[in-house]
């Protein structure tokens, strides 16, 4: 099989088959084969090395916040964001055949998933057990075949690993949704005349008073909406912060261009990670 053929057929994700990332891949690209990877770094490498055309990466959840480590990894991934997907997360309490809600004493899952069902577990006196990923937890529970052990995972994981659904939709918040970004080797340059566009970038401000305030002022004066802004420390001395931002608009639009120019004046570096069509979920059309 040639590299070109591989690229047309495969999308990579972190985790094992049955993970929510796997489910997101199948929802957006049902024609592609999903490729499980052990880590986010492995997922990025699969695309760079030609094993996959695309990567599906979870970035934040409406209940549990941002996915750990991902903001640190994106700037050096060597890939570009070309799209986004919002996946409704319907957590299922899974267990081996014969188990009941009363028999389950411990539940295994990823730390993010456990955070999203915290109240349910507390109400039922079930002990949470951290696992590397949701589907891997389901696979392990299937192997243990112990009615006292359960997993929080997807309906796809239940189907793959032969587990029963003891209780469906156990997440604490009804709006439980994960935002994924779709990444590729080559950047996308969508026409803003065809619909709303999102630009994602990272930046580090200079160490001068009010640098962040002044740098972001250009977005206000030029009428550019910042939909997401987060900071995280990137040095051992806790003195250098990098910021991750999503804005509405295309860098070629005059307002966005002027805002980014003003930000650059007060920043050591501004790096665009991707320019891509806004998902219809943002305005309720999906």
UniProtKB/TrEMBL annotation:
UniProt keyword list: Amino-acid biosynthesis, Aromatic amino acid biosynthesis, Lyase, Phenylalanine biosynthesis
InterPro entries xrefs: ACT-like_dom_sf, ACT_dom, Chor_mutase/pphenate_deHydtase, Preph_deHydtase, Preph_deHydtase_CS
Domain ACT, residue spans: 200-277
Catalytic activity: prephenate + H(+) = 3-phenylpyruvate + CO2 + H2O
GO biological process entries: L-phenylalanine biosynthetic process
EC number: 4.2.1.51
Sites annotated Essential for prephenate dehydratase activity: 178
PROSITE patterns: ACT, PREPHENATE_DEHYDR_1, PREPHENATE_DEHYDR_3
One Pfam family cited in the UniProt record for this chain: PDT
Biochemical pathway: Amino-acid biosynthesis; L-phenylalanine biosynthesis; phenylpyruvate from prephenate: step 1/1
Sequence ranges assigned to domain Prephenate dehydratase in this UniProt record: 10-185
Keyword Plastid on entry: no
Molecular function, one GO term: prephenate dehydratase activity
GO annotation, cellular component aspect: cytoplasm
Listed NCBIfam families: PRK11899.1
Cross-referenced PANTHER family: PREPHENATE DEHYDRATASE P PROTEIN, PREPHENATE DEHYDRATASE-RELATED
Protein name (database record): prephenate dehydratase
Organism from which the protein derives: Denitrobaculum tricleocarpae
Taxonomic classification: Bacteria, Pseudomonadati, Pseudomonadota, Alphaproteobacteria, Rhodospirillales
């Amino acid at each position: 099989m040639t590299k070109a053929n591989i690229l047309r057929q495969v999308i990579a994700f972190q985790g094992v088959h049955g993970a929510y990332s796997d489910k997101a891949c199948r929802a957006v690209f049902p024609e592609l084969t999903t490729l499980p990877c052990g880590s986010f770094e492995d997922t990025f490498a699969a695309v760079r090395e030609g094993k996959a055309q695309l990567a599906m990466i979870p970035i934040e959840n409406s209940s549990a916040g941002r996915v750990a480590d991902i903001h640190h990894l994106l700037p050096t991934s060597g890939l570009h964001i070309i799209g986004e997907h919002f996946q409704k997360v319907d957590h299922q309490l899974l267990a081996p055949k014969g188990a009941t809600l009363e028999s389950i004493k411990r539940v295994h899952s990823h730390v993010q998933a456990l955070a999203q069902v915290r109240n349910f577990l507390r109400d039922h006196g079930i002990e949470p057990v951290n696992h590397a990923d949701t589907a891997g937890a389901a696979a392990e529970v299937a192997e243990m075949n112990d009615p006292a052990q359960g997993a929080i995972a997807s309906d796809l994981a239940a189907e793959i690993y032969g587990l029963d659904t003891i209780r469906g939709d156990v997440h604490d918040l009804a709006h439980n949704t994960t935002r994924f970004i779709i990444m590729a080797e080559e950047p996308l340059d969508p026409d803003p005349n065809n619909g709303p566009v999102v630009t994602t970038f990272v930046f580090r401000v200079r160490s001068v008073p009010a640098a962040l305030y002044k740098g972001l002022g250009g977005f206000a004066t030029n009428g550019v909406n910042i939909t997401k802004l987060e900071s995280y420390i990137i040095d051992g001395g806790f003195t250098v912060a990098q910021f991750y931002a999503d804005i509405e608009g295309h860098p070629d639009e005059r307002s966005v261009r002027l805002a980014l120019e003003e930000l650059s004046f007060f920043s050591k570096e501004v790096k665009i990670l991707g320019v891509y069509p806004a998902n219809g979920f943002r305005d309720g059309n999906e």
